[in-house]
């Protein structure tokens, strides 16, 4: 399985942002429920990417990246919910949403290209 450093690096950096975001929500905003959800799903993306890179087959690789994609979409949901319930501002949400949407695009592209390579 080819190691996709861009995805690995971006998902790791995003996880760091999410951990810091969680600390901000917990310490500054006194938000304890949704912050745990975004922490779990946001850090899980990189974990699933790491697992995918060690996949036992192309199908395992696709499966793990598909889970990472689901976690990324869930993370976007929690960020939007935090914004729309006034825990964070539009500006605070925008940067995180752009980051997670970039990860989603990368994940979808890699999943599609890997599926196409199996069909050949």
Count helical runs.
Answer: 4
Number of strands: 0
* Silhouette: elongated
Can you summarize the main beta sheet? none
Gap from first CA to last CA: 16 Å
The name of the CATH superfamily reads 23S rRNA-intervening sequence
Strand content: under 5%
In the predicted model, the low-confidence regions spanning at least 5 consecutive residues are none
> How many structural units, i.e. domains?
1
Organism: Chishuiella changwenlii
Protein name: Four helix bundle protein
Pfam family, one: 23S_rRNA_IVP
InterPro entries: 23S_rRNA-intervening_sequence, 23S_rRNA_IVS_sf
Question: Could you characterize the architecture of this molecule?
Answer:
- With 120 residues, the chain is an all-alpha fold.
- It has a single domain (5-114), classed as de novo design (two linked rop proteins).
- The protein is 83% helix and 0% strand.
- It has four helices and no strands.
- The chain has helices spanning 5-27, 34-53, 58-84, 90-119.
- The longest helix is centred in the C-terminal third of the chain and has 30 residues, at 90-119.
- It is elongated.
- It starts with a helix and ends with a helix.
- The model has no long low-confidence stretch (mean pLDDT 96).
Explain briefly what this protein structure is.
With about 120 residues, the chain is mainly α. About 85% of the residues lie in helices and about 0% in strands. The protein has one domain: 23S rRNA-intervening sequence (de novo design (two linked rop proteins)).
């Amino acid at each position: 399985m080819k190691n996709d450093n861009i995805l690995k690096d971006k998902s790791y950096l995003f996880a760091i942002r999410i951990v810091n975001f969680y600390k901000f929500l917990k310490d500054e905003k006194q938000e304890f429920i949704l912050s745990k959800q975004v922490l779990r799903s946001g850090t899980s993306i990189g974990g699933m990417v790491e697992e995918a890179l060690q996949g036992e087959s192309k199908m395992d690789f696709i499966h793990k990246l598909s889970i990472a994609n689901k976690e990324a979409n869930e993370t976007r949901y929690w960020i939007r919910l935090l914004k729309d319930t006034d825990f964070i501002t539009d500006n605070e949400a925008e940067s995180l949403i752009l980051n997670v949407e970039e990860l989603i695009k990368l994940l979808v592209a890699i999943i599609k290209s890997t599926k196409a390579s199996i069909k050949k």
